Amino acid sequence: MTPTRQEFLHISFPEKIVFYVLIFSSLGFMALQIWERSQIWMSGKPIDWKPAGLGAWWKYVVAQRKVKTSRIKSGAPMHMAIFYGFAALFVATTILAVNSYGPVKFHQGTFYLWYEAIFDSFGLLFVVGCSWALGRRIWFRPKSIANESGDWWALALLLTLAVTGFVLEAGRIANQPQTWDNWSWVGFALAKPLGSIQPETYKFIWWFHMVWVAVFFAVIPRMRLRHIVMAILTSYGYDANQPWGELKSISIEEVERTGQIGVGLAKDYSRWHLMSLDACMECGRCTDVCPANNAGKILNPKLVVQSIRGVMAKESSVAEAISEEALWACTTCNACVEACPVLIRHVDLIVDVRRNLLAEGKLSGTAAVMLRQLGSTGHAWGQPSSSREDWMRDLDIPLCRSGEPFEYLFWVGCAGATDPAAVRATKAFASLLKKAGVSFACLGSEEACTGDPARRVGDEFLFQEKAATMAEVMTAYGVKKVLTACPHCLNTLKNEYHQFDFRPEVLHHTQFLQKLISEGKIKGAKLLPGSTVLHDPCYLARVNNEADAPRSLFGEATNLNESAYPVSGMKNQPEPAHFGRKSLCCGAGGGRMFMEEPPEQRPGNKRTEELLATGATTVAVACPFCRIMLDASIKQIAGEIIALKDVVELVLEANE
Fold it and tell me: What would the 3-class secondary structure string for 464-497 be?
């Protein structure tokens, strides 16, 4: 006898009709709810990019690329068990449907046996995952995880579906035992205590399970379970060509057409952004990694998403739903974006509202002073343009205006030109460039701020004014390659200046020093083992995925650029608890460099504590902003006993 099983065992034709009505009604109700929600998404701005398509769907949904599996405490293994268990059960049901309603009957023989064994295993994995999730909520629920009744019901529903499915399988085996039933090993084990059951008992179990299946379909759009469906749509429509460090531009024509700048109401977001809000699984990972939240500030990225979602169907202010204080607390470090399993772009959401607040005149204090200074002098700290050449005195630094040919433009930046500590790094880099015989030049007084702090604070058109001017200047000089020691300048020039038809090759100074060392033109830093800990800047390691170059300057060969979740770094120098793409923010980004905050709420303090915990006597940085912020935190926590240096200074010491 060929191994198989009877479909609709003991279910009469009229009962089948009732079953189909029940299931299709629940599916129709689910589709109706999703369609109604889609009308809200469609109220947003049309999507102006090419969707990532099936590649992103495979990467982020099927392969679960953004879900970490190496740390049990993160809850990722639990989520993976639920996801792959649920996905396998969906596939199993689909295969059964194809066999039932297709022209070819293949659910028999060897195929049937392996089908039962494999999907019983995945079903048990699903039960384990759901049980784990319930236990986690009862005994060790993370503070970022909500404790709402709907979440308990969702997990209970999933567990009910899995358990009743196995009980149904056990009932079938108990009612009509076959010699091959041991392949259905979970149901077979459960069937033993049942003994022999009557058809009526089996039918009761069957209907009990099917009713819960119908309930599941009907409530998906109403519960957090909706992310099962929404994550598929979000990943498919994801703009994989937009770097994390790029903010979309606003045109004057758009402002004239809409009568506003930025986002006031939820419908001012793009359709994709609105859809992504409904994909949120409320896992709280974004909040767990938020430097502002961890420093005790009111910003909570998960609540930002929930608050915007709460006013999607209303004519309510997004800023009021989130709170202005929370919006200004963001450092735009993109830790939340990097951590989000469903690809929500929190920084885009926040900066778009900042743009609207600033246009409405709702920014004051030191950040507003910075914008006025930037607008009048082209320098974030208000220094005159002539001050950008002060560091060059007696150094014979070539200038673009001299007319001499050059290969690389050395973009110095506001901090690099005038902050005393950053100037030391600027001089060190210029010295190494000359020592290596690199053909370079600087703009000097013709250089102005890239506009980065203005754009991230929300003054989009001040950014556009400065960026357009500098793009024009560099184009006039024929600039094709740019070197800079500032990751914020790097990001803006590399990822945003293409909006002004300027597309140079842009390298961070650590990347170029790595090249010079590999070519034998200079030597790498000479450090005592265990003496130096490296702080990874957010806009270098995470936003622009460069963590290997700084370590190569210490003679360390790492592979962090290829690792989304680094577990090992340098061998001879210590690594802090968070490094590479998981680095903790110093607190300077998003214009926060120019905003006042209580000393006890400095994100740099937590980062400094991690760095000092390594026992290193020197903290190495690769960003002038990080240097300024960590200098304040180190002095607050440790006094003057720790040295703080840019990596280029350590390299210069080895070459003197």
Answer: HHHHHHHHHHHHHCCCCEEEECCHHHHHHHHHCH
Residue pair 470/450 in contact by the 8 Å Cβ criterion: yes
How far are the Cα atoms of 122, 130, 167, 429, 532 from residue 117, in angstroms, in the given order? Answer: 9, 20, 16, 63, 54
Measure CA of the first residue to CA of the last residue in the chain; give whole Å: 86
Cα 217-221-222 angle, rounded to 5 deg: 105
The token pair at 308 is 């915007």
Sign of CA dihedral 281, 282, 283, 288: positive
Phi, psi torsion values for 483, nearest 5 degrees: -115, 140
**Collapsing DSSP states into helix, strand and coil, what is residue 411?**
strand
Q: How far apart are CA 222 and CA 515, in angstroms?
A: 54
Q: How confident is the model at residue 70 (pLDDT cuts 50, 70, 90)?
A: very low
Alpha helical stretches, state H, 331-365? 335-339, 346-359
Q: Give how far Cα 460 sits from Cα of 229, 255, 268, 469, 543, Å.
A: 35, 11, 16, 14, 20
350 three-state secondary structure: helix
Give the three-state DSSP class for 284: coil
The CA distance from 235 to 246, in Å, is: 19
What does the alpha-carbon distance between residue 10 and residue 26 come to, in Å, rounded to a whole number? Answer: 23
Confidence class of residue 146 from pLDDT cuts 50, 70 and 90?
low
What φ, ψ does residue 586 adopt, rounded to 5°? -80, -20
Question: Distance of CA 156 to CAs 87, 159, 164, 395, Å?
Answer: 18, 5, 12, 71
**What average pLDDT does range 181-191 have in this prediction?**
92
What are residue 644's DSSP bridge partners? Answer: 619
pLDDT above 70 for 73: no
Classify 223 in phi/psi space as left (phi over 0), alpha (psi -120 to 50) or beta: beta
Interatomic CA distance for residues 363 and 7, integer angstroms: 67
**Contacting residues for 519 by C-beta, under 8 A, at least 6 apart:** none
| Contact criterion met (CB below 8 Å) for 310 and 280 | no
Strand 532-534, strand 618-621: pairing: parallel
Cβ neighbour number for residue 102 with a 10 Å cutoff: 9
Q: Residue 555 class from Cβ within 10 Å (0-12 exposed, 13-18 middle, 19+ buried)? A: middle
CB atoms within 10 A of CB 109: 12
| pLDDT (mean) for 148-171 | 88
Please state, in angstroms and rounded to a whole number, the distance separating the CA atoms of residues 493 and 505: 9
- Residues 483/493, Cβ–Cβ less than 8 Å: no
- Residue 390 CA to residue 382 CA, distance in Å, equals 15
Query: Which of these, 309, 335, 648, 338, lies nearest to 510 by C-alpha position?
Result: 648
Rg (CA), the chain: 29
CB atoms within 10 A of CB 476: 10
631, β-bridge pairs = none
Strand partners, 483: 410, 507
Residue 144 token pair: 């970022």
Task: Give the total residue count for the chain.
Answer: 656
